[in-house]
Design goal:
By secondary structure, this protein is mostly beta strands. It has 4 helices and 18 strands.
Length: 342
Amino acid sequence: MSIAAAIRERDVAQLPGKRDEDWRWTDLRGLIRTAPEPSAAVDVAQLGAGPFDALTDEVLTVANGQGAAHVGVEPGEAKVVALRFVSRGDGAHAARVSVEVEAAGRLTLLESYDGEGGYLSHAGLVFSLGKDAVLERVILAGDAADGVSVSQAEVQMAPGSAFAQVVLTTGARRQRLETVIHHPGGHAELRADGVYLLADKRHADLTTVVTHAATDGRTDQLIKGVVRDQARGVFQGRIVVAEGADRTDARMGHHALILSDRAEVDAKPELEIYADDVSCAHGNTVGALDEDALFYARQRGIPEAEAKALLTEAFIGEVVDRIGHETARDIVRAWAADRLRG
């Protein structure tokens, strides 16, 4: 099963479907019955600015699968890079990008997705962190309502490194943002956060798999979602603590608000622990807005729609506030507020 191979070979039988346990809520095989034609080339010069372009002089654009293939940071170097994935039209395309941060390097990767049309897209990313390297990955996923988009990232950390990620998405016809992280212990630190804001019939799947392979590793994960209309949010989070990975400290939390009777949230948080002397926990809640808080806001003269937006902004604010890059944090906060109030 390979989405990139399915696109390359125009073979829909290679797409994942509901019989694949990790894809049962994001069925691509049942949705796409005929392989789309390859996407046409896009003139990058005709594209407008991306959401993070103003924050750096290094902007890499991958348009309909064509463009930059590597981001590198030398030992001790510090960089801010904007990486933009653009999809246009009704075709299919795939891209692969490698990101390497060498020992003691620092990278802020500002990643975005935007699209127009009924495309099928796949982005495969491979991250490698050297000893004591630091990488913060901030993702804004604004795919088209008719698009099918899959982003799959694999992260290899090193002892003493730090990897922080936050994903914000408004979903698509089908969308999956997947991150698989190999945690080496050795006082390496991982933060893997996310927010999904879904309306209409949009679908978003945030899936993470973290494997702690050795002692003294830390993982902190917080996912929050808001769904309304007939939207569907999916969270699958798995933390595996391998045999011998003692003194692992791992925390996972998923919390969602459902704002209509026809919206849906599917959540599957998992802990697999094969070691002793660990501190691991997960929490999962799905509910509605606090009626008392909404009533109080209405009593203060705030219209209902605005009151709901304010409460949901406060709900997701805990995740946004954890972004380290201050200017990127402000852009993300404004991006989320626009969509909640829209």
